[in-house]
Design goal:
With 867 residues, this protein is an alpha/beta fold. It folds into 5 domains: 5-107, MutS, DNA mismatch repair protein, domain I; 120-261, MutS, connector domain (Nucleotidyltransferase, domain 5, 2-Layer Sandwich), CATH 3.30.420; 271-390 and 545-569, MutS, DNA mismatch repair protein, Chain A, domain 3, CATH 1.10.1420.10; 575-777, P-loop containing nucleotide triphosphate hydrolases (Rossmann fold), CATH 3.40.50; 828-865. It contains 29 helices and 27 strands. The strands form 5 sheets. It has a 7-stranded mixed β-sheet, with helices on both faces. Helix 7 packs across helix 8 (231-248), helix 15 (366-385) runs antiparallel to helix 17 and helix 25 runs antiparallel to helix 26.
């Protein structure tokens, strides 16, 4: 026995797509067979059946209706599977043998374009990595694209490539990664892969990474703008284009050019900082609500939401761009009527950026075309409303606007206002658009009237009042008679089908009429589909225009969002400029925390940092007093300013920073078996190696993961390094009160504390930052507030009293560390002190003569002079 012809066809196609689940079109269903069917039935909870395949055993089979396939594919893609869509490319009636079929598209996690499979508020990137690993070179090319929007970027990494790649991929957060074989073996060493922060790498053909082949592929797909001298990036970009062609089964010509990504254009915020500052999601439940993004995202369009997210991922360090945004936000704040008008218009605009990509792919349906048209009408409203704006950013958007009336006309001239979403049954091309289509429809409409007339005639001739003429795809038109009326059926009726409640018949007259009607309907539907295909070809010429407009709308949406959040929360316009070399915040507030407490209960605080006398602020105070909240708010205010948003403060002067570093928690890494102290030291190493005088450092409890003396020593050494070497602006929270002695010893160090009020042995947190160091930790009082049993609290007080009474070495420890007896990086004085100490200890006052005593004293005096 051998496979049936159709199953042979299936197996041949499956052989070419072994790594995919093959959705095989059979009529109105997509069917899966054999192992694919078993897997899909489990993942999608489908009933597993069987189909005769020419072998002894039936082939396992399951399927889904074609009109609802997207939801099933979305589930599979979300779980990391690839899906190959195999369509019928000929009609059954046109085929001499089996229907011809071919794979028209492969859907992978990084190549999704259907909106219902995507998060509208974030980009869906696919990344490609090329590693050049030779005895003399170890360097990378990286490219990444979102084919649903047309965005494409590339980057070369030559310094510390694996660590830089790790950070870049976490920042990009791709859904899929392909690479050359050399890179695959290195990928397993990336922390982002180990901790499942990014997908596993998949090897793609090595020939696709060949430089000449890659350059040719880029040129063939209208992507010749890439810098050819960046050979690593060319290899990665060309291979990515090859992969996209391979999966999409068409040339890729609609990408928005190639963006040469340069880190120095953005404020660098690594993954650790994003997590610690809760920029996109909370640490506890990983939800948007409670994050900075959750507070500032008031966007009304999907394009705006994605752009705002990118601004938060990559705040600008270009003061001109930042201040243009700030001026635009200021105008929108000052003009609430304009802001409200724009908000209403923006809320009616669909995701035209992704819909335009569907035009380019030819997969857009009639209903989506009308959604584009309706959206573009609102785009016209948006731009007409900014015609009289004064801020440069808004007025230039208006000046450069190219009207979309031509696109609106092209769509509305062809399609009904409320067309069906599918092409199968027609009914979407307007009457009057095409003469031939109108004539075919008239025949079909007249034919239906004839059917109605024939039904009336048959009722009169037979006397059967409940006689009905119906239609289905199997039998065509038929006359249906109930059981009770079968005795009245005339002999000219030909029995066609027996039902439970009656029978169906046909007549020669009915079949003749059917041929006339069905022929015209089928021809009309085919013509409609052809006209629609031509319409989409016309619309493809507008894809670039729609994408540019979608970016302009996204920009306006972000500015309106910033204006909205600034008005609602009483934000202020920051002063941010390259010439500013200090950070000054008056009555700053935490943008997220203040949203979750009662009105006016958040306590604002001032901050002043510079690279001279105020470069390191040591912050002491008890737990729960607000140290971490205060430090985070400074970082968040700086980030908002770099995005071009107003900030939660009475006044703010922000310098252009290059990076923000945080050393706060270790919860994620602890889950992967790393010790608290190891995580802390790894992060501190990264900070000390990469920070510059233009960085902002947020350091919380450095050294807490080890013993007291080890921790104090490390914290002290870090502090001295920051002061003498890095000279970066730093907020340094600590419980090591010994560090407060550094003010006046290390340059730029200032002490601050969180104020606490103690009433009747109960503490009240004032959440106010003030000059000076804290003289008490209030640890036991905080433990009491936290609800520890009274017996534990009382025992702790007794132990603390004993420890404090016996801590006779505190001052000695401080004196030693501050350099009165020991400088941490100068052992000379320590040696001299030791010499003097040894001389005195060895003296025998019972035997020494007065002359000897004077000589020894004179020698000691000389040694002291050298200290």
């Amino acid at each position: 026995m051998s496979l049936s012809p159709m199953m042979k066809q299936y197996m041949a196609i499956k052989e070419q797509h072994k790594d995919c689940l093959l959705f095989f079109r059979l009529g109105d269903f997509y069917e899966l067979f054999f192992d694919d069917a078993v897997l899909a039935s489990q993942e999608l909870e489908l009933t597993l059946t069987g189909r005769d395949c020419g072998l002894k055993e039936r082939a396992p089979m399951c399927g889904v209706p074609f009109h609802s396939v997207e939801s099933y594919i979305a589930k599979l893609i979300e779980r990391g599977y690839k899906v190959a869509i195999c369509e019928q490319t000929t009609l059954p009636e046109e085929s001499k043998g089996i229907v011809e079929r071919e794979v028209v598209r492969v859907i992978t996690p990084g190549t999704v374009i259907d909106a219902n499979m995507l998060d509208e508020g974030r980009n869906n990137y696919i990344a490609c990595v090329y590693l050049n690993n030779t005895p003399t070179e170890f360097e990378l090319g990286l490219s990444w694209a979102d084919i649903s929007t047309g965005e494409f970027n590339y980057l070369e990494i030559k310094q510390d490539p694996l660590n830089q790649l790790n950070e870049a991929l976490i920042r990009i957060n791709p859904s899929e990664i392909i690479c050359n074989e050399e890179m695959l073996t290195q990928s397993y060493s990336l922390n982002a892969v180990k901790f499942n922060q990014i997908p596993q790498f998949n090897v793609y053909y090595d020939w696709a990474f060949d430089y000449d082949n890659a350059l040719k592929k880029l040129s063939q797909n209208n992507q010749a703008l890439i810098d050819k001298s960046k050979k690593l990036a060319v290899r990665a970009s060309g291979a990515l284009i090859e992969y996209l062609i391979d999966t999409q089964k068409r040339q890729i010509t609609y990408l928005n050019g190639f963006n040469d990504y340069k880190e120095n254009k953005f404020l660098i915020i690594d993954n650790t900082e994003r997590r610690n500052l809760e920029l996109f999601e909370t640490i506890t439940d990983r939800k948007k609500r409670g994050s900075l993004l959750g507070v500032i995202d008031h966007t009304k369009t999907s394009m705006g939401a994605r752009m705002l997210r990118r601004w938060l991922e990559q705040p600008s360090v270009n003061s001109q761009i930042i201040n243009l945004r700030l001026d635009g936000v200021e105008e929108l704040i000052d003009n609430p009527i304009l802001r409200e008008t724009l908000t209403k218009a923006l809320s009616k605009i669909n995701d035209i950026e992704r819909l335009s990509s569907k035009i380019a792919y030819g997969s857009v349906n009639p209903r989506e075309c009308i959604a584009i048209s309706n959206s573009l009408k609102n785009v016209e409203d948006v731009f007409s409303n900014i015609a009289q704006t004064k801020s440069r950013i808004l007025y230039e958007l208006y000046q450069n606007y190219d009207s979309v009336e031509d696109i609106i006309y092209t769509i509305n001239n062809a399609l009904y206002d409320n067309p069906p979403a599918v092409l199968k049954d027609g009914g979407f091309i307007k009457k009057g658009y095409n003469k031939d289509l109108d004539e075919l429809r008239d025949v079909g409409a007249h034919g239906k009237q004839l059917i109605a007339a024939l039904e009336t005639k048959e009722k009169e001739e037979t006397g059967i009042k409940n006689l009905k003429i119906g239609f289905n795809k199997v039998f065509g038109f038929y006359i249906e008679i109930t059981k009770s009326q079968l005795d009245h059926v005339p002999y000219r009726y030909q029995r066609k089908q027996t039902l439970v409640g009656g029978e169906r018949f046909i007549t020669p007259e009915l079949k003749e009429l059917e041929s006339k009607i069905l022929g015209s309907e089928e021809r009309a539907i085919k013509l409609e589909q052809k006209l629609y295909s031509l319409l989409i070809d016309d619309l493809k010429a507008y894809v670039g225009k729609i994408k540019k407009i979608s970016q302009d709308i996204a920009l306006i949406d972000c500015l309106v969002s910033f204006a909205s959040v600034s008005c609602q929360n009483n934000y202020v316009k920051p002063v941010i400029d390259d010439k500013i070399n200090y950070l000054k915040i008056i009555e700053g507030r935490h943008p997220v925390v203040e949203k979750f407490i009662k009105d006016d209960e958040f306590v604002p605080n001032d901050t002043y940092l510079d690279n001279k006398d105020n470069r390191i602020l040591i912050i002491t105070g008890p737990n729960m007093a607000g140290k971490s909240t205060y430090m985070r708010q400074v970082a968040l205010i700086a980030i908002l300013a770099h995005m071009g948003c107003f900030v939660p403060a009475k006044e703010a002067h922000i310098p252009i920073l290059d990076r923000i570093f945080t050393r706060i928690g270790a919860s994620d890494e602890l889950a992967y078996g790393h010790s608290t102290f190891m995580v802390e030291m790894t992060e501190m190493s990264h900070i000390l190696k990469n920070a510059t005088p233009k960085s902002l450092l947020i350091l919380d409890e450095v050294g807490r993961g080890t013993s007291t003396f080890d921790g104090l020593s490390i914290a002290w050494a870090v502090m001295e390094y920051l002061s003498s070497e890095l000279k970066a602006m730093t907020l340094f929270a600590t419980h090591y009160h010994e560090l407060t002695e550094l003010e006046g010893i290390f340059e730029g160090v200032k002490n601050y504390r969180v104020l606490v009020k103690e009433i009747n042995k109960t503490i009240i947190f004032l959440h106010k930052i003030a000059r000076g160091g804290a003289n008490k930790s209030f640890g036991i009082e905080v433990a009491s507030l936290a609800g520890l049993p009274n017996s534990v609290i009382e025992k702790a007080k007794k132990i603390l009293k004993i420890l404090e009474e016996n801590d006779i070495n505190y001052n000695e420890r401080v004196n030693a560390l501050t350099g009165r007896q020991l400088s941490m990086f100068d052992q000379k004085n320590y040696s001299r002190y030791e010499q003097i100490k040894n001389i005195i200890n060895e003296l025998d006052i019972n035997t020494i003569t007065p002359v000897q005593a004077l000589e020894i004293l004179s020698g000691l005096k000389e040694k002291v002079k050298k200290l």
